[in-house]
Design goal:
This protein has helices at residues 2-18, 65-72, 102-109, 113-116, 147-150, and strands at 28-35, 38-45, 48-50, 55-61, 75-82, 87-98, 157-171, 178-183, 188-191. Strand 5 (75-82) and strand 6 (87-98) form a beta hairpin. The longest helix has 17 residues, at 2-18. It starts with a helix and ends with a strand. It is of the alpha+beta class.
Length: 193
C-alpha cells in the first residue's frame, strides 16, 4: 500500500507542476461532458488544483457548449495522459460553474490581457459562421487590449471547479501495468489493469 501512496503523491506533484508549466503533458487535459445523451470531449487548460478535497480548475467562455452541458448535467470526466512516462489519470468529477461571482472575479483579475481577449469575441464558441473569423476583436489580432477595454470580456468569462469524486491512475509498463484508484475519502486500492 505504501507503493501506491508514493505513486499517488508523485502524480499529484506532476499535476500541480502542470498548472504553470505549459510544456507539461498534464497542462492540457480532455474534459468530457454529456450533450443530451451523447458524450462530448475537448481539450482544456489546467488552471488550478486543490487538495482535501481534491479539485481541479479550468476557465471557459460562458457561451460555450461545454458550459451549457455542465449546467444541464454537472457530472463529467477529466483525462490526463503523459506519453513519455506512460501514465494515464482519469477523474470522475462534479462541476461547479463560477460565473459573475466573487470567485470568477478573483480569477479574472489575475488573467493576463493576452488571455482576456479570447473572451471578447463577438461569437459564441461553436456558433456557425458564413466565413472564417478568429473570434477576437479585429483591433486585437496582433496586440493585447488595454486593461480597461479587456474588462468587456468578463461578461463571457467563467471559472469551472471540478470536484474529483474518484481518480483512476494507470502506469503502463511492458512487464505489467499498475493501476489503482483513489476515492473522494482518499482511500487507495489496487485494481486490475
Amino acid at each position: 500500500m505504501n507503493k501506491i501512496k508514493k505513486l499517488h503523491k508523485i502524480e499529484l506533484e506532476h499535476l500541480s507542476n502542470a498548472i504553470k508549466n505549459g510544456s507539461s503533458p498534464f497542462h492540457i487535459f480532455a474534459l468530457s461532458s454529456l450533450n443530451n445523451n451523447f458524450p462530448e470531449s475537448r481539450m482544456v487548460v489546467l488552471r488550478g488544483m486543490a487538495l482535501k478535497p481534491f479539485k481541479i480548475y479550468f476557465n471557459a467562455d460562458y457561451r460555450s457548449s461545454k458550459v451549457q452541458e455542465l449546467k444541464n448535467n454537472h457530472f463529467c470526466s477529466a483525462l490526463f495522459y503523459d506519453q513519455k512516462r506512460r501514465v494515464q489519470i482519469r477523474c470522475k468529477c462534479q462541476a461547479t460553474i463560477h460565473y459573475q461571482n466573487n470567485i470568477s472575479k478573483k480569477v479574472w483579475e489575475s488573467t493576463p490581457l493576452q488571455s482576456r481577449k479570447c473572451y471578447m469575441g463577438p461569437f459564441a464558441p461553436s456558433q456557425k459562421l458564413d466565413e472564417w473569423h478568429p473570434n477576437i476583436p479585429d483591433r486585437y489580432l496582433k496586440s493585447d487590449p488595454e486593461q480597461k477595454h479587456s474588462e468587456e470580456g468578463y461578461i463571457n468569462f467563467t471559472h469551472i471547479e471540478l470536484k474529483v469524486l474518484e481518480t483512476d491512475i494507470l502506469h503502463l509498463h511492458h512487464d505489467g501495468h499498475m493501476r489503482f484508484k483513489v476515492d473522494n475519502r482518499d482511500n487507495l486500492f489496487y485494481i486490475s489493469p
